[in-house]
């Protein structure tokens, strides 16, 4: 368990949440299909003008934004009936608010630990992060015309929300709004609820990741050293975007005389040049084509942050002194089982070529996300009884960071004095 937590915690004989997470995913697919096939939704779609070449099976096939909004409103009625029930929405909202509050406490505590001298910029960036987290909304398929207009525009630039189970999104321009968008993950509310909380923290992490807050170590970003750590091969080895590969694809699209696809690549390359951590919208791959390496730092950061906030919000309560079990330590272990369960790789049996493709995704491999990020935290390890290799050193300020002393941990796991006495 302590050497390779992923292997043990993803075994459904050991961890009952692995099967529960798989059932929730399956149920979501069924319910989503049920909504898609609702006669009222299909009839509306087929009565309106369609995008050329579309069959009229989904609201996104519609040509006009007003039609789309109307279609989405009808669809939402059924989504609410089958998926976003009041019970599940209440659980999701509760976890979202808790995640928001825990993350704000964590950021506030970090800010207090910044060295008094010379940390003005890091303090001001942390304050901006807190303000953004406060302003973030939970998106639960609510009937909101403005949201659907936003959604339509997302389709227009090639973001297809329904293919992604959970993500944050953002529009820029005259308004700047951040959302945590929970789709199928809401079904975890029924049977793997702590995973939903973890997901909320992860998604909120993206609101303050390197996309908007420059990650370079120039004293501004309070997480600069953590970013650096996540790049290291003895940590999760978060890869950098392969911009040359995208340039190659751009040249290919130009030579094929595909101006729209070329334009998307051109815009993506410009975004990555402006910010190496950007995760721009990349056109869909053609059949048989290989993808380019995406930058993995933002995803690694969000995973790491979710483990940090989890440990911070529970504090020493998750690791009872003297080895005895407490209600808190049992609950904490159970939560770790849940947060790992939803990361377990569902596919299995992948070929080397498939693995190589997966390694290019913006997310590190699931086994690395579990073993090298979540389960690399001494606090989280402690919650499952792996104490021996966990060293927890409270520090008074972030400049006195002790050096990494255990592989995969970097120094960052020892940041915060969790001054919570007793149980
Ligand atoms: Zn993410």
Can you describe this structure in just a few lines?
Helix content is 52%, strand content 4%. With 423 residues, the protein is mostly helical.
Would you give an account of this structure?
This protein is mainly alpha-helical. It has three domains: 315 residues, Collagenase (Catalytic Domain) (3-Layer(aba) Sandwich), CATH 3.40.390; 47 residues; 52 residues, no CATH class. The protein contains 17 helices and three strands. The longest helix is centred in the N-terminal third of the chain and has 28 residues. Zinc ion binds next to helix 9 and helix 13.
CATH architecture of the largest domain: 3-Layer(aba) Sandwich
Main sheet makeup: 3 strands, mixed
* N-C termini distance: 25 Å
Return residue spans where pLDDT drops below 50 for at least 5 consecutive residues.
158-176, 389-395, 401-409, 411-423
Order of helices and strands: HHHHHHEHEEHHHHHHHHHH
The CATH class of the largest domain turns out to be: Alpha Beta
Based on secondary structure, the structural category is mainly alpha
Q: How many helices in DSSP terms? A: 17
What's the shape?
Answer: globular
Across the major sheet, the strand order is 1-3-2
Number of strands: 3
Percent helix, as a range, is 40-55%
The chain-level mean pLDDT equals 80
What share of the residues does DSSP label as strand, in percent?
Answer: under 5%
Rg (C-alpha, Å): 22 Å
């Amino acid at each position: 368990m302590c050497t390779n937590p992923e292997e043990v915690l993803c075994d459904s004989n050991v961890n009952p949440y692995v099967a529960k997470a798989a059932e929730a995913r399956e149920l979501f697919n069924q319910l989503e299909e049920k909504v898609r096939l609702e006669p009222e939704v299909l009839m509306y779609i087929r009565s309106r003008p369609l995008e050329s070449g579309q069959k009229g099976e989904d609201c996104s096939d519609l040509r006009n934004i007003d039609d789309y909004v109307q279609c989405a409103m009808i669809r939402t009625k059924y989504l609410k009936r089958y998926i976003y029930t009041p019970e599940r929405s209440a659980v999701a909202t509760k976890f979202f608010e808790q995640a928001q509050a825990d993350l704000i406490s964590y950021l506030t505590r970090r800010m207090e630990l910044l060295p008094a001298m010379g940390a003005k910029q890091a303090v001001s960036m942390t304050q901006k992060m807190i303000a953004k987290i406060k302003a973030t909304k939970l998106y639960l398929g609510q009937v909101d015309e403005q949201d659907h207009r936003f959604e339509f525009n997302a389709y227009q630039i090639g973001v297809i929300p329904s293919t992604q189970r959970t993500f944050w999104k953002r529009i820029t321009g005259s308004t700047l709004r951040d959302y945590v968008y929970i789709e199928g993950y809401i079904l975890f509310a029924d049977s793997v609820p702590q995973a939903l909380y973890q997901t909320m923290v992860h998604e909120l992490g993206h609101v303050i990741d390197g996309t908007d807050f420059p990650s370079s170590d120039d004293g501004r970003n309070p997480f600069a050293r953590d970013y650096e750590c996540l790049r290291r091969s003895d940590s999760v080895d978060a890869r950098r975007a392969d911009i040359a590969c995208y340039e190659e694809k751009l040249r290919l699209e130009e030579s094929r005389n595909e101006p729209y696809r070329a334009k998307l690549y051109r815009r993506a390359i410009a975004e990555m040049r402006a910010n190496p951590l950007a995760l721009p919208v990349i056109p869909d791959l053609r059949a048989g084509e290989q993808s380019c390496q995406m930058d993995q730092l933002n995803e690694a950061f969000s995973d790491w942050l979710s483990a940090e906030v989890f440990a911070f919000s529970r504090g020493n309560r998750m690791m009872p002194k003297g080895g005895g079990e407490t209600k808190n330590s049992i609950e904490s272990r159970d939560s770790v089982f849940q947060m790992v369960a939803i990361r377990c790789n569902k596919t299995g049996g992948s070929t080397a070529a498939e693995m190589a493709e997966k390694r290019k995704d913006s997310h590190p491999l699931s086994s690395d996300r579990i073993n090298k990020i979540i389960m690399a935290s001494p606090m989280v390890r402690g919650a499952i009884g792996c104490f021996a290799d966990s060293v927890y050193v409270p520090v008074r300020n972030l400049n006195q960071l002790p050096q990494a002393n255990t592989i995969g941990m970097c120094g960052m796991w020892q940041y915060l004095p969790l001054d919570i006495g007793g149980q």
